[in-house]
Request: fold
Amino acid sequence: MSAPTRPLRSHQRSLSELVASLARGEATGITDILAAVTPGGGKSLLPVIAASRLIAAGLVDRVVWVVPRDSLRLQAEEAFADPAWRSALGHTLSVRAADNSPDPSRGLAGYVTTYQAVAAAPALHLAEMRRHRTLLVVDEVHHLPALSDSESGSEAAKNEAAAWSGALLPLFREASLRLLLSGTLARADGRRILWLPYRTENGAQVPDIEAPGWAVIGYSRAEALAEKAVLPVNFGALDGEASWLEGGRTSGQARVGPHRLSGSGPSATTRPALFTALRTGFARDLLREAFYATRRLRAERRRKRGLTATEAVRGLGKLLVVAPDQASAQSYHAMIQAWMPEEQARRDVRIATSAEADAHAALAAFRLTPEPAVLVTVAMAYEGLDAPEVAVVAALTHIRSRPWLEQMIARATRVDPHAGDYADQHALVFHPDDPLFAQFRARIETEQATATRPRKRPTGAASPEPRPLSREADEGIVPLESNALGLRYAMLRPGPAVAMARPEANEAAPVPPSRVERALRARVAAMVTAQAVEDEAELRGRPGAPLPHRYNAVLKRLFGNKSRAAMTAEELEAALAWLERNRLQDHLHLLEGDSRYAWSARRRWAGMERRPG
Reply:
């Protein structure tokens, strides 16, 4: 079945109109374009649009597209080769996924390379930029930190991301035009992003998106849903209970539980219960639900298309399993294979982790061919995996930060052109019914129904491999057993307000400022508490005040030493946006040697010691 031609989405039209204006000489002075696009929204087409228009107009001769990972390098090459878009855009350009051999373009319209390759051979790529008028495309630019004066030379080599920035900066300077792709304007480490202009606002450095020479294009989840560019999500929340052994107790008290996964809010048992559930019987039960849901979907699509059980075709739907660590991924892989005949298991179930020699081949086969139908991974499919056939996700990860979960869910929200009408498709995500995931789901539901502001993709290291909670880090937490108790579904479709997510939509009725501030303060407090509960097991045993107190102090230091009670509504919104994309745990160093924090911590500890019991 050939993929039908689709119209450009609003952000793609905006870029097309902008580069057309550049080609006509109307948009003078624009040298930098920043595009922030929600996951699954169609970001990879933007370089194709820009390059095809600008090369045809004679404004540039070549395109150089730099990506953070090798798997994205191949996907970028495929974007230019897509026959449907070649026809729709009327272009005949080709680029090649290049290594560091001489003449990376080989007579084509340009090439795609990685941050690592540029850092390994900066002179080669700089020479190419100087040889031709070049459109430089930098994917996931938030991975590149701005360089300080001390990092301009050998100091940058001590940090991988800074080394990338040091190698790429001369390319930025030589490019005729720059197209920067990212879903966020902030980094987890608080550093500025390379090349972006900044201004001071309320004492903090923020990107100046209105700087001269810059054009900014955004595309939010609400806009994507309104345009049917991404699929609605059906969450299958599986509740359960878990028991474990906890270190530091006497032998008669070592067993903890059983404790339920679900609850009205995070508690001291939330994290250990989840840790245990992902490594014992509960994980098998959730995997089984996802596996049989995928089988039913594939069988139904075969029936509708009149296919036999052995015909290998695209568009039947696939299962992506996201594991908490590589050992668990191996266990899940073996478990699923055991549910199939041996020959089918070898063909249909693959694993892709950094420890597997054929991981990239497995990813490519999962994306581009009818088989395999199941892929088990940890982080290799986290960011940028373009596999529209993924219809079901088994979310067996311990990570509960919004950016991580958004990226994971986005693997299943891409519209599959081979699977029929949009109305017949939806994403199905099975997950543990713990309160931390429930909070994330509530935020997604609100966003899908109200179209408030664009939500960006995560910041952080270029390889977002999650830190597994090792048994050492958990001070001897040993999973004993767990089991599933009940499954409930919740379909999150675009609500009525999403249809109004247009520039001409009426503004919401005003809310009294004090009520807005109270609601924002409550949300900030809930997110700080959620991170503290999530990190409790990993940081247990470290000296200091209780984790929520430490995290509140970190947040205060990050926002100009202002308490939540003293923050304006705009500052509280900024704190919320920061918390959604970053981890307070990564900034605990801000409290080192801080006499104000030490004094408040001593007062708090003294108060706790005076309490009865």
Remarks:
- Residues 153-158, 450-475, 494-509, 605-613 have pLDDT under 50 and may be disordered.
- Residues 513-539 form the longest helix (27 residues).
- Residues 34 and 216 are 5 Å apart (CA to CA).
